[in-house]
Amino acid sequence: MSTNPYLNVGEKRKLPPAGRSQDEPQYVHHLSPKPSPEVGFSIPGRKDVKERCAKYAEVAVFSLLLLLLVAGILLGYYCSSTCLHGRQCGDGGCVWESQWCDGVSDCPSGQDEADCVRLHGSTFVLQIYSGSNWRTVCSDGWTEQQGKAACRHIGYSRGTHFRSGQRKAESVDGFLTARPGFNPEASVLKQLEFSRTCPNNTVVTLHCTDCGRGVNSSRAYRSQRVSLGSWPWQVSLQVAGSHRCSGAIISPYWTVTAAHCVSRTSNPAEWTAYAGIVDPLGTLFNPSHPVSLIIPHEGFDSLTRKNDIALMRLAKPLDFTGASGHIGPVCLPSAALNLTDHRRGWVTHFTHRSGGLYLTGDQVSIADAVDCNATVAYGGRISRDMLCAKETEAEPKACASDGGSPLVSLKDGLWWLVGDSIWGDHCAVRRKPGVFGNVTYFLDWIYHQMKNHQDD
Asked: How many angstroms separate the Cα of 118 from the Cα of each of 140, 156, 202, 232?
């Protein structure tokens, strides 16, 4: 028997299994150097898919976190912001712009319906806030009943409406027109509707009082003892029969004075008002008017004299229609009315002379705020709620004006209330003019108080 030389020594020769021919083909597995591309996915391909999925997941998670961060910032800003949209009520709440001045109180304290009616310019054009704009009211269909309702909405008491008129006026924002069928129980704001046009462009003018009828400026001489009826809005405010302060009549019920005048004596029962007096005999022939309410400004500071303004309400209305004609209101400033542009005014005040109390008037010039706040004057103590006026002559007699003395200015034939005297005791010093409360600054406050107490 021959031996296989390729067998290792000691290794037994394996015989094919029984029943199988030794000549049966033997299949040998050959590895291809490069697999065919048709053969399925390789292991490296599966790794790429997993890596891509992982990257997509990371991007998705990062985007979600970024979105949550932005949402958190916006939510925090929304919660911290007083009012992102609409209008702020003033007590932390907000209402939509469309709810402002719609005739329905949506703010807790009714701020959205408080300042919706105003008078514009020296012609008293009636304007109502509507659709984010102040719009004039077309005179077509306007009635005296609606005029009375508009005056009450401003803050005047029932029965103080004087008259409605009309004048030509253009408007690029359209007009408001009266709806037919006036309802005296509904707000005047709910009885108007928007209109692109107005017949002849004739709009409503509204006079809630017959104000500003006083002495002609050509007859207002410096420091003169004025005649009866020259300054019909002047009142003497007295405590226990003694003159304490001056005031200015603005309606049959209301008088403007200074807050420092009433700060020590705040009980209305201790006060009386005298109107239509110019000399010591005035208190003998004119009735005294009891005071029912005193409203000093809530922000009054006795040290800085900021917000030095107050209102007095009389127990009974003054009679402006009497035969004497010696009593009447001064006009409150209207919107867009510049009363300091011509820089002239008059201060009326009571002075004690031999024999008693006399009313005098002094011509003044309104000083620039920068000059008034200069170091040589008041050194920055004059704030926006104040203005300064100095005498046109060398002798500063107006500095002796008592608290609350009205500073008035003549414009377009009417007398307007510019200020109330608050620092009358310092202006005698050279270069220090008298300081007055700025009535234009306090106009909204005045109307707000009048409206809150118009039926007291």
From this structure: 19, 12, 18, 25
> How far is CA 120 from each of CA 210, 383, 446, rounded to the nearest angstrom?
16, 25, 17
pLDDT band at 186 (very low <50, low <70, confident <90, very high): confident
Return the H-helix or E-strand segment holding 64.
Answer: helix 43-80
d(CA 53, CA 47): 10
Give the residue extent of every domain in the chain. Answer: 115-207, 217-452
The pLDDT value recorded for residue 26 is 45
What's the pLDDT at 12?
A: 44
Report how far apart, in Å, the C-alpha atoms of 296 and of each of 255, 257, 260 are.
12, 9, 8
Rounded Cα gap, residues 111 and 93, in angstroms: 10
- Give dist(CA 98, CA 96) in Å, integer: 5
Angle (nearest 5°) at CA 418 between 152 and 157: 15
Phi, psi of 423 (to 5 degrees): -125, 70
Evaluate whether 429 touches 405 at the Cβ level (below 8 Å).
no
- What pTM was estimated for this model as a whole? 0.79
Q: Could you tell me how far CA 452 lies from the centroid of its own chain? A: 17
Q: Fold for domain 217-452?
A: Thrombin, subunit H (2.40.10)
10 Å CB burial of residue 42 (0-12, 13-18, 19+) is exposed
Residue pair 266/304 in contact (Cβ under 8 Å)? The answer is no
**Phi/psi of residue 79, nearest 5 degrees:** -70, -35
Q: Is 210 helix (H, G, I), strand (E, B) or coil?
A: coil
- Residue 337: closest CA among 113, 125, 152, 114: 125
Residue with tokens 């005294």: 288
Amino acid occupying residue 215? V
Whether the per-residue pLDDT at 189 is higher than 50: the answer is yes
Amino acid at 22: Q
Please check whether residue 402 is in contact with residue 246, taking contact to mean a CB–CB distance below 8 angstroms: yes
Long-range contacts of residues 175-181, Cβ cutoff 8 Å, at least 24 apart = 175/135, 175/136, 175/137, 175/138, 175/203, 176/128, 176/130, 176/135, 176/136, 176/137, 176/138, 177/137, 177/138, 177/140, 177/141, 178/137, 178/138, 178/140, 178/141, 178/142, 178/143, 178/146, 180/141
Distance between CA 422 and CA 304 in Å, rounded? Answer: 11
Q: Which CATH class is domain 115-207?
A: alpha beta
Contact 342, 453 (CB under 8 A): no
Q: Angle CA(26)–CA(32)–CA(37) in degrees, nearest 5? A: 130
- Mean pLDDT (the chain) is 83
> For residues 237 and 245, is the Cβ–Cβ distance under 8 A?
yes
